[in-house]
Amino acid sequence: MQGLRWPALLASMCSSIACLAPAHAGANPAQGGLEFQGWLRADLGVLTPLDPLELERTEFLGLHLLNITARNENRAFAKVEANLDVTLPYGLYRCSAGGEPVGLELRKLYMSLFFEHADVSLGRQIIHFGKGTVLSPMDVFTSVDYFDLEFRRRGTDVARVKVAFSPASGADLIAALPAWPGDLNEGSAAMKLFTNLAGWDLSGVGIYRYGSTEAVTGVGFKGDLVVGVHGEAVAHVDWDRGETAWEFMIGADYSIHNRWFFAIEGLYRTGTQTDQDGATIAGNLEATPSTPENGAAPQTDDPCAGSVGLALPAFRPDLFGTIRFSVNDLTSITAMLLGSVQDGIFLPTLELSHSLFQNVDTVFYFRVPVTGTGRAAPAGLWTGLWVVARF
Amino acid sequence: MAPHITLVGTLLLLATATPAPHPLTGEEILQAMDRNRNYDHIVFSARMEIHVRDQVRIKTMEVKSRASERKSVVEFTNPEDRGTRYLMLGDNLWIYFPDEDDTVKISGHMLKEGMMGSDVSYEDALDADVLADKYDIQVVGEEEVDGRLCYVVELKAKVRKVPYFSRKIWVDKTWFIAWREEMYGKSGKLLKVARTLKVKEIGGRYIPVRTEVASALKKNSRTIFEMLNVSFDIPVPEDLFTQRFLQR
User: What is the Cα–Cα distance from A133 to A230, expressed in whole angstroms?
Assistant: First the structure.
């Protein structure tokens, strides 16, 4: 779906529009020009076998990630925005990246025009339909990177129209762009309606995929019942086969004295959803699940054996929970669990986060995959140190 | 009510009023404080210093509000949080995270979480209701605090939906601003202490432009909130207070 030609086309259009804006932003920042921001993250770690007799197989893994965002400063009438990830993977991360020394991912590149009653956008954008933090069956256009500690999302090439009915309600119309001039059957169309009633955020979505016999429809809510609660119900209807598969997600969050924070999400599926090629999907139409596809046991003569990408069998998360203790406003400890009860795979993570300086944070983390009986043994214990500097 | 720690309306609740010629009841004192919110639009920049032990983190923001309608938009401008926006409509709060293009409703107990890691909670920022509507008030005396003569009033919640079960406010007798305030939970435990550090006359009003909030639950943790470039009644367009604007 992420055809190469749309980004190229959009890059040309966006750069043209950006050039129309005055370049002398420093003279009067509110008047025009581009503004830049971003962050640089270093993620260094080791993957240690759980078996003490195999400690010599301890592997190094590292990832430097530069994220840059550029957008026009004066967004009274239009917006152009680009967001780019440049990655330098080392060790096992490089194996996971197919051995490529440098990775580029254009997460966003789009332009929007703001009219009185609607905002029209074209290009690669992050479409967040759902209410869930991680498990969100309504999020049909975005995929979550489950290995990222921040659960970042990837962009999708779409044409989008946003219409506001009131300050907190409106419609979001989306057509996913095929890899132009490819087959229109690759695209999807979706509509989301949202509103706020009595303090509750409510939304409904409908998605249709060209060239398929499947439609997806769902509803979501987020509100307050002493604890914060959110949920989604999504139906995948295949009228050719006369089958309907359901996905239900429910989540809650709670805090105690601004010190303890709890959040949990659970997902339950009935039936099986498939993509156009017949492959099982987790509700994300546009992207494959972010967990590794390859569940085969690593080959010992493979230099990338035991790489992060092979460390876990493929799984579709259906359980997510966090407990965070705020030591003070600079330091916190978080225990996090992501897993699949259905597949018998869990990924617990323990994080110690600390703000080192203004705009510089660090996270020291442990992560060890846990698999059920009959599954391939987990590769080992991840121990990592994350440092991120923002600018 | 935490008049000195809210971002918009409640900060200005601390503005001046005419000195009272006779002893006032608790209701009259709070009504005098509430009357200070008689403005429609306000625009200001703000700087938040988060102090933890010997370390300081700075957050900066632009605030636009139609305070009488309880509508506010806050946009953070410091590098770490640049582009993050808050939309407050009455009791509802949404946060827009630009990196993920995600608008999230903050609800439930997460409203008690500190804004951007500060000692000021989201709930504090939303707390702009009339104090007299939510609390029973009792004047317990007069005290001098940091050189200012104050009424001492105690507030006990008479409705369930309040951020603090009880409060003790030292109200400046001349300006009718909260010079100092202690906020308590239902168990009687002290949760926060706030005090005004600097007052400035702007447009005929006395505004507490520098206030401090300290958490009683966290050791050596306090936040200083400073208002800069305050302008009253400059018309703020209605369409700023929409989810659509958040994503622009």
Answer: 10
**What CATH number belongs to B9-246?**
2.50.20.10
Domain boundaries, chain B: 9-246
Q: What is the DSSP string of A278-333?
A: S-B-SS-SSS--SS-S--SPPPTT-TTTT-GGGSS------EEEEEEEESSSSEEE
Q: Which residue of A has its CA nearest to B58?
A: A358
CB within 8 Å: A329 and B219: no
Distance between B111 CA and the closest CA of chain A, angstroms = 9
Residue of chain A nearest B94, judged by CA positions? A168
8 Å CB contact of A329 and B241: no
Give the model confidence (pLDDT) of B164-190 as tens digits: 899 999 999 988 888 999 999 888 999
Reported pTM: 0.82
Contacts of B161 in chain A (CB under 8 A): none
What domains are defined for chain A? 5-25+32-390 (2.40.160.10)
Q: Is the peptide bond before A181 cis (omega within 30 degrees of 0)?
A: yes
Nearest to A170 among B87, B220, B243 (CB): B243
Say if the ipTM goes beyond 0.85. Answer: no
pLDDT band at A327 (very low <50, low <70, confident <90, very high): confident
Residues from chain B contacting residue A173 (CB–CB below 8 Å): none
